[in-house]
Design a protein that fits this description.
This protein has about 325 residues and is an alpha/beta fold. The chain folds into two domains: about 150 residues, Response regulator (Rossmann fold, 3-Layer(aba) Sandwich); about 130 residues, Response regulator (Rossmann fold). It has eleven helices and 14 strands. The strands form four sheets. The chain has a six-stranded parallel β-sheet with strand order 2-1-3-4-5-13, with helices on both faces. It has a four-stranded parallel β-sheet with strand order 7-6-8-9, sandwiched between helices. α8 links the parallel β8 and β9. It starts with a helix and ends with a helix. The relative contact order is 0.14.
Protein backbone atom coordinates (compact mmCIF):
# COMPACT_ATOMS: atom_id res chain seq x y z
CA UNK A 1 0.00 0.00 0.00
CA UNK A 2 2.83 2.39 0.90
CA UNK A 3 4.52 1.58 -2.41
CA UNK A 4 1.28 2.33 -4.31
CA UNK A 5 0.85 5.66 -2.50
CA UNK A 6 4.47 6.53 -3.22
CA UNK A 7 4.00 5.77 -6.91
CA UNK A 8 0.82 7.87 -7.02
CA UNK A 9 2.56 10.83 -5.38
CA UNK A 10 5.51 10.50 -7.76
CA UNK A 11 3.16 10.41 -10.76
CA UNK A 12 1.25 13.46 -9.51
CA UNK A 13 4.46 15.42 -8.99
CA UNK A 14 5.70 14.43 -12.45
CA UNK A 15 2.46 15.58 -14.06
CA UNK A 16 2.62 18.88 -12.19
CA UNK A 17 6.20 19.41 -13.29
CA UNK A 18 5.28 18.59 -16.90
CA UNK A 19 2.35 21.03 -16.79
CA UNK A 20 4.57 23.68 -15.24
CA UNK A 21 7.22 23.15 -17.90
CA UNK A 22 4.62 23.33 -20.67
CA UNK A 23 3.27 26.55 -19.23
CA UNK A 24 6.79 27.94 -18.94
CA UNK A 25 7.31 27.22 -22.64
CA UNK A 26 4.35 29.35 -23.65
CA UNK A 27 5.45 32.18 -25.91
CA UNK A 28 4.34 35.63 -24.81
CA UNK A 29 3.36 38.01 -27.59
CA UNK A 30 2.41 41.56 -26.62
CA UNK A 31 -0.13 43.33 -28.81
CA UNK A 32 0.56 47.03 -28.12
CA UNK A 33 -2.16 49.35 -29.42
CA UNK A 34 -2.35 53.13 -29.79
CA UNK A 35 -4.70 53.38 -26.82
CA UNK A 36 -7.02 51.11 -24.88
CA UNK A 37 -10.78 51.45 -25.27
CA UNK A 38 -10.83 51.92 -29.07
CA UNK A 39 -13.20 49.56 -30.91
CA UNK A 40 -10.83 48.91 -33.81
CA UNK A 41 -8.12 47.65 -31.47
CA UNK A 42 -10.57 45.68 -29.31
CA UNK A 43 -11.54 43.84 -32.52
CA UNK A 44 -7.86 43.31 -33.39
CA UNK A 45 -7.38 41.73 -29.97
CA UNK A 46 -10.17 39.24 -30.75
CA UNK A 47 -8.14 38.13 -33.75
CA UNK A 48 -4.95 37.94 -31.71
CA UNK A 49 -6.66 35.76 -29.11
CA UNK A 50 -8.01 33.56 -31.92
CA UNK A 51 -4.46 33.08 -33.20
CA UNK A 52 -3.19 32.26 -29.72
CA UNK A 53 -5.91 29.64 -29.25
CA UNK A 54 -5.12 28.13 -32.64
CA UNK A 55 -1.38 27.98 -31.92
CA UNK A 56 -1.93 26.53 -28.46
CA UNK A 57 1.36 27.56 -26.87
CA UNK A 58 1.01 31.34 -27.15
CA UNK A 59 -0.21 33.88 -24.63
CA UNK A 60 -1.25 37.25 -26.02
CA UNK A 61 -0.80 40.26 -23.75
CA UNK A 62 -3.17 43.00 -24.95
CA UNK A 63 -1.93 46.35 -23.74
CA UNK A 64 -1.42 50.02 -24.52
CA UNK A 65 -1.59 53.49 -22.96
CA UNK A 66 -4.81 55.22 -21.96
CA UNK A 67 -4.21 58.06 -24.42
CA UNK A 68 -2.69 58.12 -27.91
CA UNK A 69 0.81 59.30 -26.99
CA UNK A 70 4.28 58.02 -27.82
CA UNK A 71 5.30 58.57 -24.19
CA UNK A 72 2.57 56.22 -23.00
CA UNK A 73 3.62 53.53 -25.46
CA UNK A 74 7.29 53.84 -24.48
CA UNK A 75 6.34 53.23 -20.86
CA UNK A 76 4.36 50.13 -21.90
CA UNK A 77 7.24 48.83 -24.03
CA UNK A 78 9.78 49.23 -21.21
CA UNK A 79 7.45 47.27 -18.93
CA UNK A 80 7.19 44.48 -21.51
CA UNK A 81 10.98 44.34 -21.81
CA UNK A 82 11.16 43.86 -18.04
CA UNK A 83 8.58 41.05 -18.34
CA UNK A 84 10.82 39.35 -20.92
CA UNK A 85 8.10 38.81 -23.49
CA UNK A 86 9.05 36.92 -26.65
CA UNK A 87 7.59 39.39 -29.14
CA UNK A 88 6.09 42.86 -29.35
CA UNK A 89 3.64 43.79 -32.10
CA UNK A 90 2.94 47.53 -31.96
CA UNK A 91 0.61 49.95 -33.71
CA UNK A 92 2.64 53.10 -33.22
CA UNK A 93 1.60 56.57 -32.14
CA UNK A 94 4.86 58.00 -33.54
CA UNK A 95 7.14 56.76 -36.33
CA UNK A 96 10.44 57.67 -34.69
CA UNK A 97 9.88 58.22 -30.97
CA UNK A 98 9.41 54.52 -30.18
CA UNK A 99 12.58 53.41 -31.98
CA UNK A 100 15.07 53.60 -29.04
CA UNK A 101 12.79 51.56 -26.76
CA UNK A 102 12.07 49.00 -29.50
CA UNK A 103 15.77 48.70 -30.37
CA UNK A 104 16.40 47.99 -26.70
CA UNK A 105 13.78 45.25 -26.89
CA UNK A 106 15.41 43.70 -29.96
CA UNK A 107 18.82 43.87 -28.26
CA UNK A 108 17.28 41.71 -25.51
CA UNK A 109 16.21 39.10 -28.07
CA UNK A 110 12.58 40.21 -28.34
CA UNK A 111 11.08 39.98 -31.83
CA UNK A 112 9.54 43.34 -32.73
CA UNK A 113 7.09 44.06 -35.52
CA UNK A 114 4.78 46.97 -36.22
CA UNK A 115 1.30 46.62 -37.68
CA UNK A 116 -1.42 49.08 -38.73
CA UNK A 117 0.70 52.15 -37.89
CA UNK A 118 4.39 51.59 -38.45
CA UNK A 119 7.66 52.55 -36.82
CA UNK A 120 10.89 53.48 -38.62
CA UNK A 121 12.80 50.53 -40.04
CA UNK A 122 15.49 50.61 -37.32
CA UNK A 123 12.84 49.95 -34.68
CA UNK A 124 11.28 46.76 -36.05
CA UNK A 125 11.95 43.60 -38.03
CA UNK A 126 8.96 44.10 -40.35
CA UNK A 127 5.77 46.10 -40.74
CA UNK A 128 2.34 44.73 -41.62
CA UNK A 129 0.20 47.22 -43.49
CA UNK A 130 -3.51 46.44 -43.28
CA UNK A 131 -3.68 47.13 -47.01
CA UNK A 132 -1.64 48.85 -49.70
CA UNK A 133 -1.20 52.51 -48.73
CA UNK A 134 -1.81 53.75 -52.30
CA UNK A 135 -5.03 51.74 -52.44
CA UNK A 136 -6.20 53.22 -49.13
CA UNK A 137 -5.29 56.76 -50.17
CA UNK A 138 -7.21 56.41 -53.41
CA UNK A 139 -10.14 54.73 -51.69
CA UNK A 140 -10.79 57.44 -49.11
CA UNK A 141 -10.91 60.28 -51.64
CA UNK A 142 -12.89 58.16 -54.12
CA UNK A 143 -15.55 57.53 -51.47
CA UNK A 144 -16.03 61.28 -51.19
CA UNK A 145 -15.80 61.99 -54.91
CA UNK A 146 -18.27 59.27 -55.91
CA UNK A 147 -21.01 61.26 -54.19
CA UNK A 148 -19.85 64.63 -55.53
CA UNK A 149 -20.24 64.46 -59.33
CA UNK A 150 -19.84 68.24 -59.59
CA UNK A 151 -16.94 68.34 -57.12
CA UNK A 152 -16.84 70.45 -53.98
CA UNK A 153 -14.97 71.32 -50.79
CA UNK A 154 -13.71 68.37 -48.76
CA UNK A 155 -11.92 68.34 -45.38
CA UNK A 156 -9.88 65.66 -43.63
CA UNK A 157 -10.29 64.76 -39.95
CA UNK A 158 -7.28 62.64 -39.00
CA UNK A 159 -6.03 61.04 -35.78
CA UNK A 160 -2.83 62.57 -34.36
CA UNK A 161 -0.39 64.71 -36.33
CA UNK A 162 2.29 62.04 -35.80
CA UNK A 163 0.20 58.96 -36.70
CA UNK A 164 2.29 57.09 -39.23
CA UNK A 165 -0.52 55.34 -41.06
CA UNK A 166 -2.91 58.29 -41.36
CA UNK A 167 -0.13 60.57 -42.59
CA UNK A 168 0.89 58.09 -45.29
CA UNK A 169 -2.72 57.57 -46.41
CA UNK A 170 -3.38 61.32 -46.60
CA UNK A 171 -0.19 61.79 -48.61
CA UNK A 172 -1.27 59.02 -51.01
CA UNK A 173 -4.71 60.64 -51.22
CA UNK A 174 -3.18 63.94 -52.27
CA UNK A 175 -1.18 62.22 -55.01
CA UNK A 176 -4.38 61.10 -56.75
CA UNK A 177 -6.58 64.09 -55.89
CA UNK A 178 -6.16 65.42 -59.43
CA UNK A 179 -7.91 62.31 -60.76
CA UNK A 180 -11.17 63.49 -59.19
CA UNK A 181 -12.56 66.53 -60.97
CA UNK A 182 -13.50 69.49 -58.80
CA UNK A 183 -12.52 67.93 -55.46
CA UNK A 184 -10.92 70.64 -53.32
CA UNK A 185 -9.32 69.59 -50.02
CA UNK A 186 -9.67 72.72 -47.87
CA UNK A 187 -8.22 71.58 -44.53
CA UNK A 188 -6.76 68.75 -42.46
CA UNK A 189 -7.46 68.76 -38.73
CA UNK A 190 -6.54 66.34 -35.94
CA UNK A 191 -8.84 64.83 -33.34
CA UNK A 192 -6.09 62.77 -31.65
CA UNK A 193 -8.32 59.67 -31.80
CA UNK A 194 -10.38 61.16 -28.99
CA UNK A 195 -14.13 61.25 -29.57
CA UNK A 196 -14.75 64.60 -27.89
CA UNK A 197 -11.87 66.39 -29.62
CA UNK A 198 -12.79 64.86 -32.99
CA UNK A 199 -16.36 66.09 -32.49
CA UNK A 200 -15.16 69.62 -31.69
CA UNK A 201 -12.79 69.65 -34.67
CA UNK A 202 -15.71 68.67 -36.91
CA UNK A 203 -17.80 71.49 -35.49
CA UNK A 204 -14.93 73.84 -36.33
CA UNK A 205 -14.82 72.59 -39.92
CA UNK A 206 -18.57 73.07 -40.34
CA UNK A 207 -18.33 76.64 -39.03
CA UNK A 208 -15.18 77.57 -40.97
CA UNK A 209 -16.20 76.13 -44.34
CA UNK A 210 -19.88 76.85 -45.08
CA UNK A 211 -19.62 75.16 -48.51
CA UNK A 212 -18.17 71.93 -47.11
CA UNK A 213 -19.58 68.88 -48.90
CA UNK A 214 -17.68 65.98 -47.36
CA UNK A 215 -15.46 65.04 -44.44
CA UNK A 216 -12.93 62.24 -44.86
CA UNK A 217 -11.92 60.63 -41.55
CA UNK A 218 -9.31 57.85 -42.00
CA UNK A 219 -9.76 56.85 -38.34
CA UNK A 220 -12.47 54.73 -36.73
CA UNK A 221 -12.80 57.14 -33.80
CA UNK A 222 -12.93 60.27 -35.96
CA UNK A 223 -15.47 59.02 -38.48
CA UNK A 224 -18.06 58.25 -35.79
CA UNK A 225 -17.49 61.60 -34.06
CA UNK A 226 -17.73 63.46 -37.37
CA UNK A 227 -20.94 61.70 -38.35
CA UNK A 228 -22.47 62.59 -34.97
CA UNK A 229 -21.38 66.23 -35.28
CA UNK A 230 -22.90 66.47 -38.77
CA UNK A 231 -26.11 64.93 -37.46
CA UNK A 232 -26.30 67.31 -34.50
CA UNK A 233 -25.66 70.29 -36.78
CA UNK A 234 -28.60 69.31 -38.98
CA UNK A 235 -26.27 68.85 -41.97
CA UNK A 236 -27.32 65.35 -43.08
CA UNK A 237 -27.71 65.48 -46.84
CA UNK A 238 -25.41 68.48 -47.08
CA UNK A 239 -22.16 67.03 -45.69
CA UNK A 240 -21.27 63.38 -46.31
CA UNK A 241 -18.95 61.72 -43.77
CA UNK A 242 -16.74 58.97 -45.12
CA UNK A 243 -13.35 57.37 -44.51
CA UNK A 244 -12.40 54.32 -42.45
CA UNK A 245 -14.70 52.94 -39.77
CA UNK A 246 -16.20 49.85 -38.15
CA UNK A 247 -19.57 48.55 -39.40
CA UNK A 248 -20.80 48.06 -35.82
CA UNK A 249 -20.14 51.73 -35.03
CA UNK A 250 -21.22 53.20 -38.37
CA UNK A 251 -24.39 51.24 -39.20
CA UNK A 252 -26.66 53.81 -37.52
CA UNK A 253 -24.98 56.71 -39.32
CA UNK A 254 -25.35 54.98 -42.68
CA UNK A 255 -29.02 54.39 -41.94
CA UNK A 256 -29.51 58.06 -41.00
CA UNK A 257 -27.75 59.25 -44.16
CA UNK A 258 -24.89 61.00 -42.34
CA UNK A 259 -22.56 58.58 -44.12
CA UNK A 260 -23.29 57.18 -47.57
CA UNK A 261 -20.39 54.73 -47.49
CA UNK A 262 -17.05 54.02 -45.81
CA UNK A 263 -14.30 51.42 -45.96
CA UNK A 264 -12.17 49.28 -43.69
CA UNK A 265 -10.31 45.98 -43.65
CA UNK A 266 -11.21 43.38 -41.04
CA UNK A 267 -9.41 44.37 -37.80
CA UNK A 268 -9.95 40.86 -36.45
CA UNK A 269 -7.91 39.52 -39.36
CA UNK A 270 -5.26 42.19 -38.76
CA UNK A 271 -4.73 41.26 -35.10
CA UNK A 272 -4.74 37.59 -36.05
CA UNK A 273 -2.15 38.11 -38.81
CA UNK A 274 0.17 40.22 -36.63
CA UNK A 275 0.15 37.52 -33.95
CA UNK A 276 0.84 34.75 -36.47
CA UNK A 277 3.75 36.70 -37.96
CA UNK A 278 5.24 37.35 -34.51
CA UNK A 279 4.99 33.65 -33.75
CA UNK A 280 6.68 32.76 -37.05
CA UNK A 281 9.60 35.07 -36.18
CA UNK A 282 9.90 33.59 -32.68
CA UNK A 283 10.11 30.16 -34.31
CA UNK A 284 13.10 31.25 -36.40
CA UNK A 285 11.67 32.77 -39.57
CA UNK A 286 13.76 35.65 -40.92
CA UNK A 287 12.31 39.01 -41.91
CA UNK A 288 14.13 40.09 -45.05
CA UNK A 289 13.18 41.42 -48.49
CA UNK A 290 11.42 38.73 -50.50
CA UNK A 291 10.69 36.55 -47.46
CA UNK A 292 7.20 35.16 -46.95
CA UNK A 293 5.97 35.08 -43.36
CA UNK A 294 3.11 32.86 -42.23
CA UNK A 295 -0.26 34.41 -41.34
CA UNK A 296 -2.26 31.25 -40.57
CA UNK A 297 -5.68 31.23 -42.27
CA UNK A 298 -4.75 34.54 -43.98
CA UNK A 299 -1.98 32.82 -45.97
CA UNK A 300 1.43 34.49 -46.12
CA UNK A 301 2.75 38.02 -46.51
CA UNK A 302 5.66 38.78 -48.83
CA UNK A 303 8.05 41.49 -47.67
CA UNK A 304 9.21 44.32 -49.92
CA UNK A 305 12.60 46.06 -49.90
CA UNK A 306 11.60 47.98 -46.76
CA UNK A 307 10.53 44.77 -44.98
CA UNK A 308 6.87 45.73 -45.29
CA UNK A 309 3.91 43.72 -46.49
CA UNK A 310 0.16 44.25 -46.97
CA UNK A 311 -2.60 42.03 -45.61
CA UNK A 312 -5.64 42.66 -47.86
CA UNK A 313 -7.53 45.23 -49.92
CA UNK A 314 -9.97 47.60 -48.15
CA UNK A 315 -13.68 46.77 -48.44
CA UNK A 316 -16.53 49.25 -48.92
CA UNK A 317 -19.59 49.27 -46.67
CA UNK A 318 -22.87 51.02 -47.44
CA UNK A 319 -26.61 50.58 -46.90
CA UNK A 320 -26.57 47.33 -48.87
CA UNK A 321 -24.25 45.43 -46.53
CA UNK A 322 -23.37 47.36 -43.37
CA UNK A 323 -26.02 45.69 -41.16
CA UNK A 324 -24.71 42.25 -42.04
CA UNK A 325 -21.12 43.09 -41.13
CA UNK A 326 -22.13 45.08 -38.03
CA UNK A 327 -22.89 41.72 -36.40
CA UNK A 328 -19.24 40.67 -36.84
CA UNK A 329 -17.16 43.77 -35.98
Amino acid sequence: MKILKSLMVTAAVSLALMASAAHAENKKIALVVKALGIGFFEAANKGAQEAAKELGNVEVIYTGPTTTTAEGQIEVINSLIAQKVDAIAVSANDTDALVPALKKAMDRGIKVISWDSGVAKDGRLMHLNPSSSPLIGNMIIKLAADNLPEGGDVAVLSATATSTNQNVWIEEMKKVQGNYKGINVVATVYGDDLADKSYRETQGLIQSYPNLKAIIAPTSVGIVAAAQAVTDAGKIGQINVTGLGLPSEMAGHVKSGASKSFAIWNPIDLGYSATMIANDLINGAEAKPGAELKMGRMGAVKLDDNNEGAMADPFVYDASNVEEFAKIF
